[in-house]
Every structure is written in structure tokens, then in C-alpha cells.
Design brief:
396 residues; alpha/beta; Alpha/beta knot; Trp Operon Repressor, Chain A; 4 domains; 5-stranded parallel beta sheet; 14 strands; 43% helix; 16% strand; binds S-adenosylmethionine
Length: 396
């Protein structure tokens, strides 16, 4: 792989390229990392690369010409041009894996106030390394280069990248080294007994536990497990294991109870909204003890859809109740159904708001308010009509 970094400060990369794993990767010819000072491409006699922004405002803006010319001089068919900017898509391990498969990366480091907007037109992608603003794109370029290079085949031991944080959307397991006991803090016994099956199991458990505690958001779209009448704790299935398991759809009559893998809110939502809908998948293959007989993989969008469906059903029932109240002259019925409408709104806000999203929630509340207003209007018309009738009858 080749990585070209366009920067005004190539010296910043000296330490980065000359230490540790990156240095070795360069020496082993796994990657070549070149810094290119795009000032050298400036056609201005003073080698100027920036100017004041049109429309006024503070700071200096990088000009198109030096950057366009620098990119054009190195860009090939297989190149991926990446602009480093706080406005880009947030960088993560998945992106690092993706980029590690590219043949040629061109990273453009901005500086000062930023760059001329037209520079975006020559870039394939915009990447940010987080929601904060740095003085230049050099540190982001190093962050991306570092995380990408260590994933190139042969740069680090593949065993060490297999279980590390963010693989399979799980964090790494805890690690210990000598001594066994440091100031009363002991290394877990299981790591000392040499039983690799047990160690493996412990590590898998820890990865899931640590992720659930520290980054439950990573488990969000993951899994729910299901099994029959066995202690829930003993019945865990791990994300790693799922990869090796063939799944087939479960037949209706094989439905069993649903158990939760973690307490995250989406799982709560499923058991709350659709206990009868859960079908899941039957497990085959590497599931010898048969303790787990089903998994369910759920997407946020699906939960939203189900939550919406449930709420719409409740609104239909409310509408029906309004119509009933309109066709009856029971005064209590009127206040009862208005009370029900209020309660329904509260219930939706308390129980469904998280799953519907603000836009849907807003629409639903407006919808209920509309029904209430229409009902009150119709009821008022109805009673004024009845009063008129009574008056007419009195006059006769
Ligand atoms: C001071 S910043 C410019 C910020 C710009 N005015 C804005 O508010 O979006 C200068 C350069 O640093 C780089 N940079 C700063 N923060 C970054 C981040 N979080 N991710 C990637 N690049 C960043 C970009 O190349 C940017 O053009």
C-alpha cells in the first residue's frame, strides 16, 4: 500500500514514520508513506498557498491551485483521495479495515481556517477523527495512517488484532501480566490454570460484559438469545460463536420463551412491543450442548416500525371510542374518552418516545390533538343542535 500525505508541515511526520510498528512496516515494504509539501506546487512567486476568505471573516483559507495540482500529479486510477475535516464522516475501526484494503491513499491535511470549498470536488471521501477541532489535518492523517497500517496483512500478528476492541462490535477482554499479585490485586485464577478452553470462554464472557458496561451502544443492533427453561446465565451465546453457526428460520410451533442477553433499551422495546412477533432463528452447527435454541437479530429501524404500528393501532381504537361517544348522549362518556386521549398521549411520551424518534412523536401527538379538537367541535355542534331542537319544540 502507498499513502501520500499532502501537508504544509512534513516534518511533523518524522517521529511518526521512524518509530515502532510504522517504521518496521515501512522497512518491510508493507507500506510506503510519503509526505508531500503542497507549497511546492504553488504557482505564486512567493509560494503562497492561502488567502483571506471572500465575504470577510477571520483566518486564512487554503487555495485550490496548489492542492489541485499536487493531487493531480500523484492521483492514479486506484487512488482514494481523502480530505481531513471535522465535517467528515467520523472515523472508526470499520473504516480503518476498509481503507487497509486500498492500494493508494491520498490524505489532504487542511490548516489555518480550512480550505476553499471547491477542493471538496477532487476528494472521494471526507473523514473526521472526532467532534473537536484541531489546528491542522496532520494529527488526523497520523491517526488514520497508524490504524490502517497495523491492519495491513503481515504488519502485526493477526492473533492480536482478532479480539481487539471494536472487532465484532465488542471491546477487548482484560489483560494481566506479572506479578500474580500486585498490592493485593490478584490476577483472575482462570488465567493461571493453563486450560485454554476455559480461558477462551472467560475472555469471551469478559468482552461481552465490558462492552455491555462501557459501550452498550455497540451491542445495540446485536442479538437476543432464546432458550427453553435453562438458567439464563448459563445460556449465553457469543457474537463470535454466531459466525460459526448456520441459521434457519424457526417454525411457528417451535416458538419458545424469550430471554434477554443484555438490559439495553432496544431489547426492552422488543419484549415490550412484540412478544408474540418474535420468531428468531434456529441454531445449527457449533451449538453442541443445545442450550441455546434461537437467536434474534434486530435492527433499530425495525423497532421503530413496530413501535409506530403499535401506536397507530392505539390511535385507531381512540378514534373508534370518539365515534362511540358521539353516537351516545352519555355526558360521562364524553369526559371519559377525553381523559383516555390525554392518558394515551402521556403513555406514548413515556413509553414510546425513545423508539419513535422526535419527528414521528411530534406527528402522533398532533394527530391525537387533532382528533380531540374534531371530537370537541362535533360534540359542541351536536349539543347546540339538540338545544335548538328543544327550544323549537318548546315554541310549538
Ligand atoms: C482549524 S481546522 C479548520 C476548521 C474549520 N474552520 C471548521 O470549523 O470546520 C484546520 C484543519 O484541521 C483539520 N482538522 C481539524 N480538526 C479535525 C478533525 N476533527 N478531523 C479531521 N481533520 C481535522 C482539517 O484538515 C481542517 O481543515
Amino acid at each position: 500500500m502507498k499513502i501520500d500525505i499532502l501537508t504544509l508541515f512534513p516534518n511533523m511526520f518524522n517521529g511518526f514514520k521512524n518509530e515502532s510498528i510504522i517504521k518496521r512496516a515501512i522497512e518491510d515494504k508493507k507500506v510506503s508513506i510519503n509526505t508531500i509539501n503542497f507549497r511546492n506546487f504553488s504557482k505564486n512567486k512567493h509560494k503562497k498557498v492561502d488567502d483571506t476568505p471572500y465575504g470577510g471573516g477571520s483566518g486564512m483559507v487554503l487555495m485550490c491551485q496548489p492542492i489541485f495540482d499536487a493531487v493531480n500529479s500523484i492521483k492514479k486510477k486506484n487512488s482514494k483521495v481523502i480530505l481531513l475535516t471535522p465535517q467528515g464522516k467520523k472515523f472508526n475501526q470499520k473504516k480503518a479495515y476498509e481503507l487497509s484494503k486500498e492500494e493508494h491513499l491520498i490524505l489532504i491535511c487542511g490548516h489555518y481556517e480550512g480550505f476553499d470549498e471547491r477542493i471538496r470536488s477532487i476528494c472521494d471521501e471526507e473523514i473526521s477523527i472526532g467532534d473537536y477541532v484541531l489546528t491542522g489535518g496532520e494529527l488526523p492523517a497520523m491517526v488514520i495512517t497508524d490504524s490502517v497500517v497495523r491492519l495491513i496483512d503481515g504488519v502485526i500478528n493477526t492473533e492480536s488484532s482478532k479480539n481487539e476492541s471494536f472487532n465484532d462490535n465488542l471491546l477487548d477482554y482484560p489483560t494481566y501480566t506479572k506479578p500474580r499479585n500486585y498490592n493485593g490485586m490478584k490476577v483472575p485464577e482462570v488465567l493461571l490454570n493453563g486450560n485454554h478452553l476455559q480461558i477462551d470462554k472467560w475472555r469471551k464472557e469478559k468482552r461481552l460484559k465490558v462492552t455491555n458496561e462501557k459501550r452498550p451502544d455497540l451491542l445495540k443492533n446485536k442479538i437476543i438469545i432464546e432458550k427453553n427453561g435453562v438458567n439464563e446465565k448459563k445460556n449465553k451465546i457469543y457474537v463470535d460463536d454466531i459466525k460459526n453457526i448456520k441459521v434457519t428460520k424457526v417454525k411457528e410451533k417451535e416458538k419458545t420463551n424469550v430471554y434477554k442477553l443484555s438490559k439495553n433499551s432496544d431489547i426492552k422495546a422488543i419484549t415490550l412491543f412484540m412478544p408474540n412477533l418474535i420468531k428468531g432463528y434456529k441454531l445449527k452447527g457449533k451449538n453442541k450442548d443445545k442450550k441455546v435454541n434461537k437467536i434474534l437479530i434486530v435492527k433499530d429501524e425495525f423497532i421503530k416500525k413496530i413501535a409506530m404500528k403499535n401506536v397507530m393501532k392505539k390511535i385507531d381504537i381512540l378514534n373508534y371510542r370518539f365515534n362511540l361517544a358521539l353516537s351516545s348522549d352519555d355526558e360521562d362518556g364524553t369526559s371519559r374518552v377525553l381523559g383516555e386521549a390525554e392518558m394515551l398521549k402521556q403513555m406514548i411520551i413515556n413509553m414510546y418516545a425513545n423508539y419513535l424518534g422526535n419527528e414521528n412523536l411530534d406527528k402522533i401527538i398532533k394527530n391525537i390533538n387533532y382528533l380531540v379538537n374534531e371530537f370537541v367541535k362535533a360534540k359542541t355542534l351536536q349539543s347546540s343542535f339538540v338545544n335548538k331542537e328543544i327550544n323549537n319544540q318548546r315554541k310549538m
